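Practice set, problem 2.
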Amino acid sequence: MNLPESYIPILIQAGVAVGFVAISLLGAHFLGPKQKKGNSVKNQSWECGVAVEGNARTPFSIKYFLTAVLFVLFDIEIVFFYPYAVNFREFGLEGFFAVLTFVAIFFLAFFYVWKRGALDWDK
């Protein structure tokens, strides 16, 4: 196998990474604590000394996930304001109208979500 010299550091780094992962996984398996099987009180879940209520597999309301996704969506919007804030003088009036259009689209989306009741927790 005839590899160019530029590939050798990449292969060494990949080998070190795979070796580190293998050693970490094997070390955790053999050196880590062993749990006893069974339904002992020691293996039960506790949160700050309060007894568990219900099952951990209890489904969440879809409103929770919908609100989380909407938060991420509207939060990521802020990232797109940074380039405009840094270069707003260079963008001029055309850039201002582009950002205004961007904000208007997100406001329309926000009002749509609001009117559809996605942010209303009481329903």
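Problem 2, part (b): a different protein.
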Amino acid sequence: MHIRGDHAELVVGGRLDVRSAADARTVLHSAVDDGVGDLVLDLSELDSWDATGLGVIMGVHRRAGRCGRRLVLRDVPPQMQRLLVATRLHRILAIEGGIGVESLPRV
């Protein structure tokens, strides 16, 4: 897993899973704490995430809200869009461009 960027926009790549969750949480929480306005996570380079990785995203979402910021997901890969829809988290998280639920293949 790799994360690059600043306190306003970060690109997350690789796998966001149980092995990388602690490091990702540290980097993402620092970005929330050090910035103002929206924090954009570009997920175009993300290969996969598991429940732990999704938990990290939700934790960052809550922390951003407490800091008066908003977490925005950008370029969410289709596989991960399906997971957000299945868990109904697409209704809670800010997703740039939204998710076309009707265009996602059924699993």
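Answer key, part (b): The beta strands are 2-5, 9-16, 38-49, 70-74, 94-95. The radius of gyration is 13 Å.
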